[in-house]
Design brief:
The radius of gyration is 17 Å and the shape is globular. The N and C termini lie far apart (about 40 Å). The protein has a single domain, classed as 3-Layer(aba) Sandwich (Rossmann fold), CATH 3.40.50. It has nine helices and seven strands. The chain is an alpha/beta fold. It binds S-adenosylmethionine. Pathway: Quinol/quinone metabolism; menaquinone biosynthesis; menaquinol from 1,4-dihydroxy-2-naphthoate: step 2/2; Cofactor biosynthesis; ubiquinone biosynthesis. Its EC number is 2.1.1.163, 2.1.1.201. One of its GO terms (molecular function) is demethylmenaquinone methyltransferase activity.
């Protein structure tokens, strides 16, 4: 790419992802609001409102981090339902658990430290699985998608909310924002420009809308489709297991 970013080897990538999220965990929520001008809240709200999740449902929020989706699902599934907030990173999981507990959301949530590539749940466990801004951090995305397919119940759906390829007209502004402004914001508010440079790079390397859709089809998902938001800065992919 014209920013000279090279794909890093897999073990190195996994370690790097761990470092990034350990280092940003405490300020993660603030930075989300700042960097997206609060718009990530709408992307997440749209995702949850279109999930069709009902009372009593079992939901897995993988790469759930500080729990933005989990907290919404916890209300929707009610006391008879169940939400699992899973994340590979203990620091993110701790921040998420503290935040939800502080807000009195406790009844029907489990916190599980897990890798999306090898989910520690039985086959056919969940009615709905979400992964929001998580898949691009996963080293082996095909393996992760296959793992999600396995633990999804027949009739259940996967929703992938992730940065994607923005419309052409937005490209120039978007590149400047992500590679110049974003690291500066990161430096200013967390003293850590590197983590935010990684963020921009990981977004650039992530498969575009059609590629991700095909990856979902390849592991067995059916009726796969996506919905662009904010001119394709973000896309919500959906697929079902039958
Ligand atoms: N879903 C939350 C949200 O939308 O605010 C958190 C998103 S955060 C940008 C990405 C999360 O993915 C981090 O908490 C990170 O620890 C987690 N993650 C990275 N690689 C993972 C993996 N292989 N399995 C599970 N979680 C992973």
């Amino acid at each position: 790419t014209h920013f000279g970013y090279k794909e890093v080897p897999t073990a190195e990538k996994a370690r790097h992802v761990a470092d990034v999220f350990h280092s940003v965990a405490g300020k993660y929520d603030l930075m989300n609001d700042l960097m997206s001008l609060g718009i990530h809240r709408f992307w997440k709200l749209f995702t949850v409102s279109n999930s069709g999740v009902r009372r009593g449902a079992k939901v897995l929020d993988i790469a759930g981090g500080t729990g933005d989706l989990t907290r919404k699902f916890a209300k929707m599934v009610g006391e008879t339902g169940h939400v699992v907030l899973a994340d590979i990173n203990g620091s993110m999981l701790n921040v998420g658990r503290d935040r939800l507990t502080d807000d009195g959301i406790v009844a029907n949530i489990d916190y599980v430290q897990a890798n999306a590539e090898a989910l520690p749940f039985p086959d056919n466990s969940f009615d709905c699985i979400t992964i929001a801004f998580g898949l691009r951090n996963v080293t082996d995305k095909d393996k992760a998608l296959a793992s999600m397919f396995r633990v999804l119940k027949p009739g259940g759906q996967l929703m992938v909310l992730e940065f994607s390829k923005p419309a052409d007209w937005l490209g120039g502004i978007y590149d400047t924002y992500s590679f110049k402004v974003l690291p500066q914001l990161g430096k200013l508010f967390t003293g850590d420009a590197e983590s935010y440079r990684y963020l921009a790079e990981s977004i650039r390397m992530h498969p575009d809308q059609e590629t991700l859709k095909q990856m979902m089809i390849d592991v067995g998902f059916e009726r796969c489709d996506y919905h662009n938001m904010s001119a394709g800065i973000v896309a919500l992919h959906r697929g079902y297991k039958f």
